[in-house]
Write a structure and sequence with these properties.
Blueprint (H helix, E strand, L loop, with lengths): L1 H15 L7 H5 L4 H5 L18 H22 L3 H5 L9 H14 L1 E14 L3 E14 L6 E11 L5 E13 L2
């Protein structure tokens, strides 16, 4: 059961990370996609405001964050544990479960990830929050249901001065065909 719980958490973490190969222009063409999910009339669902313009300093940080997410996704698809861990903050509360989950997932599945949308919620010199929508599909391995996940990444500067994923909060995850 411990491995199943770790596996589920890891899949959510993995499906939450990465940035695909889309350019900023491609991401901006779909400005309403992630916020649209938050406009549903559900009592417990908060509306998330996303940034629509960026200062030059914020643009620099934004591009650094997109590179971290890309590196994380590339390393995950290549099943490179050490490269994935290079994108996770050393103080992340999800670090241990990520390590455990990777072992199981990489042994049992080959996955494809597609980041469908990324929007920035906030950018400071210490912390960045992004909301994302991503699909995760199993190429090989039985028992994994293809999913679409929406969540929020919090990234912080690590001790080495680089941006890294500190925490991921999941808003929704559901099966897709």
């Amino acid at each position: 059961m411990k491995y199943i719980n770790s596996f589920i958490l890891f899949l959510l973490i993995i499906s939450a990370t990465g940035c695909g190969t889309k350019t900023d222009d491609e991401l901006n063409q779909r400005e309403d996609q992630v916020p649209q999910v938050n406009n549903q009339k559900q009592e417990n669902q908060q509306k998330i405001e996303v940034m629509v313009s960026f200062t030059p300093e914020e643009e620099i940080i934004k591009n650094e964050i997109l590179k971290v997410l890309q590196k994380n996704l590339d390393a995950t698809e290549k099943e490179n544990v050490s490269a994935v861990l290079e994108t996770i903050h050393e103080d992340s509360p999800q670090l241990s479960s990520t390590k455990e989950g990777m072992e199981y997932v990489f042994k049992n599945f080959d996955m494809k990830y597609k980041l469908e949308d990324v929007k920035f919620i906030s950018i400071t010199n210490e912390e960045v929050k992004v909301i994302y929508q991503q699909t995760t599909k199993a190429v090989n391995g039985a028992g994994f249901a293809n999913t679409r996940t929406i969540g929020i990444h919090t990234l912080k500067k690590s001790k080495d001065g680089n941006w890294k994923i500190f925490n991921t909060e999941y808003i929704s995850s559901g099966q897709i065909q």
